[in-house]
Specification:
- The protein is an all-alpha fold.
- The protein has a domain of 123 residues: LemA-like domain (de novo design (two linked rop proteins), Up-down Bundle).
- It starts with a helix and ends in an 11-residue tail after the last helix.
Length: 196
């Protein structure tokens, strides 16, 4: 009887340090953080038709820029995202690339729009631009929250003894956001004050 009781005590003590409950908590936190990222991406995608409609009112506006925005939105919203996307590096990168293309297309649209004074004077366009900028900031905050949550989860899944629990119960490290053009942005900028 004493051996059985000691065995149960050892088992109970070993389970308290296994991290199973921590995995549950952080897995749910990362799913929640990911949902917020998706929510903000959807908010941005919902703004695009309104922005395009207000820009189309400018008769001379570059059609190619508008077409790229429309195509990027269609591509970004066509990718089906499920909780399994978080554990599939290929699907995650595909989703991330599509969202990056939409961000780039919207940035180009806003830069081109600055060349059109009547568009800049349009109150609806200015309001949409402010809303889009706010949404981009919300996306950044949501992504940062997701990155932090995934970092905590991944540290737990790679640390001993909780890495044993991760292997037993199937908690692999999760994907996080990465910089798409890392090689390009790691180059120092060339500054030449002699150019005019």
């Amino acid at each position: 009887m004493l051996k059985r009781w000691l065995g149960m005590m050892v088992l109970a003590l070993s389970l308290t340090g296994c991290g199973y409950n921590d995995f549950q908590k952080l897995d749910e936190a990362s799913k929640s953080a990911w949902s917020e990222v998706l929510n903000q991406y959807q908010r941005r995608a919902d703004l695009v038709p309104n922005i395009v409609a207000s820009v189309k009112g400018e008769a001379n506006f570059e059609q190619e820029t508008l077409t790229k925005v429309i195509e990027a939105r269609a591509k970004a919203t066509s990718i089906q995202v499920t909780p399994e996307t978080l554990n599939n590096p290929e699907a995650f990168n595909k989703f991330q690339q599509a969202q990056g293309e939409l961000s780039g297309a919207l940035s180009r649209l806003m830069v081109v729009a600055e060349r059109y004074p009547t568009l800049q004077a349009n109150q609806a366009f200015r309001d949409l631009r402010v809303t889009l900028e706010g949404t981009e900031n919300r996306i950044t905050v949501a992504r940062n929250n997701y990155i932090k949550t995934v970092q905590e989860y991944n540290v737990l899944s790679r640390s001993f003894p909780t890495n044993v629990t991760a292997k037993i119960f199937g908690y692999p490290p999760k994907q996080t956001f990465s910089v798409q053009n890392e090689a390009e942005i790691s180059k120092p900028p060339t500054v030449d004050f002699n150019k005019k």
